[in-house]
From TrEMBL:
<dbReference type="Pfam" id="PF09084">
    <property type="entry name" value="NMT1"/>
</dbReference>
<feature type="signal peptide">
    <location>
        <begin position="1"/>
        <end position="21"/>
    </location>
</feature>
<dbReference type="InterPro" id="IPR015168">
    <property type="entry name" value="SsuA/THI5"/>
</dbReference>
<protein>
    <submittedName>
        <fullName>Sulfonate transport system substrate-binding protein</fullName>
    </submittedName>
</protein>
<feature type="domain" description="SsuA/THI5-like">
    <location>
        <begin position="66"/>
        <end position="212"/>
    </location>
</feature>
<keyword id="KW-0732">Signal</keyword>
Length: 350
């Protein structure tokens, strides 16, 4: 059970919070200011493996504990896993792209995005390339006509496939979409076994894919695909104690990404090698492919891109229209920008 707020904190929050049941903190309205003080012993359950490693390597984890925040880490990331954990009430927040927040809404799970980051040069450093199976000729997006393409409707890769078809002037009827959830190296294996002709694979894995399967190729999409978020159950940001803890976490998460930019060797050893199991050489290739992370000064551009994606998915996958401004908690926008300070990115990069 969490400890009660101190009297001073209770007085400070009295105008905006109301008492809840014994299992949670005081209720916090979504329009209320984020609390400044974290009650001692406050715990948040987060699936954010890369940042978990970076916080430890950088020493920023000490600032979490000094602020009174305890994190129960979960080895979870990505849409399907996180939504399942949300529904089972096993998780408060998870690191994902932007697509899971849409599918959470469409399937009845209320969430809020509390963190947005970008790649500083997103077209030069895409998250995905289109892997092409050995023996298959695809040198441009137009060549996708008639091909079998791996497709996962509820993941970022699925949304990218639809955006690629849109850019190429093709429809779903012009290709064969092969339903396949992207987990681990499932798409690389499907390509290597020629179960599909084309699949979006991590740009950082392209070199490994080509080395493993002679004749394998890959092409660029020319589409910005760098959306990266932390999204949380709405109930978590409506819990005053957890909201206070998340305010601290969001600020430190911004600092962690900037530390990662400045300390590639530290990030390589702490996460890519120690957690992901990559060799030092492969980790170096991944870092080069990933590019520098950026903290946007404003979420305006990210929200506009998310709305465009939501509109496309609603049309192509027969979902209800969705106003994505209901999926973001912009109280945290200023928190991460202030943490990044002069290192925020603006303009087209944001």
């Amino acid at each position: 059970m969490r400890r009660l707020f101190s009297l001073s904190a209770a007085v400070l929050l009295a105008a905006t919070v109301a008492a809840c049941g014994d299992d949670g903190g005081a209720a916090l309205e979504l329009t209320a200011a984020l609390p400044e003080q974290v009650p001692s012993g406050t715990e948040i359950r987060i699936g954010d493996p890369a940042i978990q490693a970076v916080l430890g390597a950088s020493g920023l984890d000490k600032e979490l504990s000094e602020a009174g925040v305890t994190v129960e880490w979960a080895n979870i990331s990505g849409g399907p896993q996180s939504i399942q954990a949300f529904r089972a009430d096993k998780l408060d927040c998870s690191a994902v792209a932007d697509i899971p927040s849409l599918f959470a809404a469409w399937t009845g799970t209320s969430t809020k995005i509390v963190f947005q980051s970008v790649i500083v040069d997103p077209l030069t450093h895409p998250i995905y390339q289109l892997g092409v199976a050995p023996g298959v000729t695809v040198t441009s997006l137009a060549d996708l006509r008639g091909k079998r393409i791996a497709y996962s409707a509820g993941q970022a890769q699925g949304a990218l496939v639809l955006r690629v078809l849109q850019k190429a002037g093709l429809t779903q009827k012009d290709v064969t979409l092969v339903e396949l959830t992207s987990t681990g190296d499932s798409y690389v294996t499907a390509l290597g076994s020629k179960a599909v002709d084309v699949a979006p694979i991590g740009a950082a894995n392209v070199k490994i894919y080509k080395g493993k399967y002679p004749g394998a190729t890959a092409i660029l999409t020319g589409i910005r695909d760098d959306a990266s978020t932390l999204y949380c159950l709405t109930s978590a940001v409506q819990d005053a104690e957890k909201a206070a803890a998340l305010k601290v976490y969001v600020g430190l998460r911004a600092k962690a990404l900037l530390w990662q930019n400045d300390n590639p060797d530290g990030y390589s050893k702490a996460y890519l090698q120690a957690v992901q199991g990559l060799s030092a050489a492969d980790a170096k290739d991944v870092i080069a492919a990933d590019g520098a992370k950026g903290i946007p000064a404003t979420w305006d551009n990210a929200i506009a891109r998310l709305q465009a994606t939501a509109d496309l998915l609603a049309a192509e996958q027969k979902h209800d229209k969705l106003d994505v401004t209901t999926l973001v908690d912009r109280r945290f926008e200023k928190v991460e920008a202030e943490a990044a300070g002069s290192k925020v990115v603006t303009g087209d990069a944001a």
